[in-house]
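Input structure tokens:
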């Protein structure tokens, strides 16, 4: 992956990500009830003028769950203040 900085110097990033998690399915309906995902991203970033690689690590913990339409249509309390 390459990024262009404001000073026109390319920033090169190398790395990868991996997911692990669980999917809970209601066997009676076949609907997904809940998903728990953990993503781990490892990168190394460098530029031509700064050849030392800068390591990066990001962890994301994601929870998705099935909710009712009534709950979906409720206003989000943090936005309604």
């Amino acid at each position: 992956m390459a990024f262009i900085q404001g000073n026109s110097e390319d920033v090169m990033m190398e790395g990868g990500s991996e997911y692990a998690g669980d999917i809970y399915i209601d066997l009676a309906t076949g609907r997904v009830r809940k998903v728990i995902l953990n993503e781990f991203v490892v990168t190394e970033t460098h530029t031509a003028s700064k050849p030392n690689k800068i390591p990066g690590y990001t962890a994301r913990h994601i929870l998705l769950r099935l909710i009712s339409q009534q709950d979906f249509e409720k206003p989000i309390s943090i936005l309604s203040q």
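The mean pLDDT is 84. The longest helix spans residues 69-73.
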